[in-house]
């Protein structure tokens, strides 16, 4: 994968080891093998190939083509001018060869499969041209010996293998990043779903219950619907306020009134929640130990959802007991009703996400959640949340 947008600071951090290594090879080669009469040819070619190798992560295909053209052109020029070089056995200067190997590894790592294969062939062809054309000042047998060929193939395989290894590493890292992003998005969706369910279901259920109650007695008491209207209006306003708080929280604003500053405020919020629900609710709040504000919001949501479920599902309901207390490092929430069974068609329908959302909320906070029938009659919800997590 080509990365033409790679910034220069990032490129410098990634490529400084290669730049340092090529500089060291060039300095060693200049002091030991390059003769002064050929330095005007050897140094510029090696230096330019090194620069292109260092910059190649930005445009690996272009860098590969440029180095292939550079090697081929310089080889033709050296042949035409009959300038003998002190290149090593493969026909390239040592710095040139190191730059070619580095570019092959980078191209295999970043470019597409077809382009990478073509660039490897182009650089290989340029090396063969240099082997054939560049006059050598070293006496001895022809360069295309078995030893030279084996060395070249071995080093080429190492360069390609290095590129493939880092290519696989990059692919694994991208996959891990994509999975992390997907997991974070899924967690956000679940959190949003829980909040929407808790807020909307609670208030809308209350509105439906009061409206149905007023409708059922409208024939006997024509004033009942009018008496229910203020309650429905108040529930609607509360729903809008809660939705605005939720939207503000999602946008990063500080939510207002959704968390408790101290235990007294949390107790008041629980009491207000019970008054909004109405009906035969017996409330007990005993918060002897401090409850963190972020935990207080979850306590409110758990009580809210438990009351909503009781109003929606319980038949022949005469009592709901709500008990919230803190002791040691644990907050315990217990909501029990005495309903006789399950309604066939719950008020407002049922999405089946209430218990799931409460269990997820409790487990995310490191707590314990339990819900089920209470003996022969009623339903019980019990939650324990640690205050230290």
TrEMBL record:
Keywords: ATP-binding, Kinase, Membrane, Nucleotide-binding, Phosphoprotein, Transferase, Transmembrane, Transmembrane helix, Two-component regulatory system. InterPro entries: HATPase_C_sf, HATPase_dom, Sensor_HK_TwoCompSys, Sig_transdc_His_kin_sub3_dim/P. This is histidine kinase. Pfam families: HATPase_c (PF02518), HisKA_3 (PF07730). Its EC number is 2.7.13.3. The keyword Kinase applies. Gene3D superfamilies: 1.20.5.1930, Histidine kinase-like ATPase, C-terminal domain. It comes from Kutzneria viridogrisea. It catalyses: ATP + protein L-histidine = ADP + protein N-phospho-L-histidine. The chain crosses the membrane at residues 87-107, 114-133, 145-166. GO terms for molecular function: kinase activity. Residues 294-389 form the Histidine kinase/HSP90-like ATPase domain. CDD domains: HATPase_UhpB-NarQ-NarX-like.
């Amino acid at each position: 994968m080509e990365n033409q947008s790679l910034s220069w600071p990032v490129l410098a951090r990634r490529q400084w080891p290669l730049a340092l290594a090529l500089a060291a090879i060039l300095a060693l080669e200049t002091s030991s093998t390059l003769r002064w009469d050929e330095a005007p040819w050897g140094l510029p070619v090696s230096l330019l190939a090194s620069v292109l190798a260092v910059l190649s992560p930005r445009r690996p295909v272009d860098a590969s083509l440029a180095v292939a053209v550079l090697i081929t052109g310089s080889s033709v020029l050296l042949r035409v001018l009959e300038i003998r070089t002190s290149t090593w056995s493969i026909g390239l200067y040592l710095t040139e060869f190191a730059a070619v190997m580095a570019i092959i590894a980078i191209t295999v790592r970043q470019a597409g499969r077809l382009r990478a294969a073509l660039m490897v062939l182009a650089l290989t062809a340029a090396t063969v041209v240099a082997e054939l054309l560049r006059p050598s000042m070293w006496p001895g047998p022809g360069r295309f010996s078995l030893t030279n060929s084996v060395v070249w193939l071995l080093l080429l395989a190492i360069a390609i293998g290095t590129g493939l290894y880092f290519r696989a590493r990059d692919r694994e890292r991208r996959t891990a990043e994509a999975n992390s992003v997907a997991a974070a998005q899924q967690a956000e969706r679940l959190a949003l779903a829980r909040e929407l369910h808790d807020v909307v279901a609670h208030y809308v259920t209350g509105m439906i219950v009061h409206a149905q109650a007023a409708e059922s007695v409208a024939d006997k008491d024509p004033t009942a619907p009018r008496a229910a209207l203020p309650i429905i209006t108040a529930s609607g306003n509360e729903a809008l306020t809660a939705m605005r708080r939720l939207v503000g929280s999602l946008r990063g604003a500080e939510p207002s009134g959704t968390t408790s500053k101290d235990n007294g405020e949390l107790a008041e919020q629980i009491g207000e929640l019970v008054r909004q629900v109405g009906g035969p609710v017996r409330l007990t709040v005993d918060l002897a130990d401090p409850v963190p504000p972020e935990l207080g919001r979850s306590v409110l949501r758990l009580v809210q959802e438990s009351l909503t479920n009781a109003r929606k599902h319980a038949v022949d309901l005469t009592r709901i007991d709500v008990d919230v207390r803190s002791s040691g490092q644990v907050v315990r929430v217990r909501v029990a009703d005495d309903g006789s069974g399950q309604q066939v068609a719950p008020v407002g329908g049922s999405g089946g996400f209430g218990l799931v959302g409460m269990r997820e909320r409790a487990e995310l906070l490191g707590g314990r959640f339990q819900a089920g029938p209470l003996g022969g009659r009623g339903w019980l919800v019990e939650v324990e949340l640690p205050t230290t997590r």
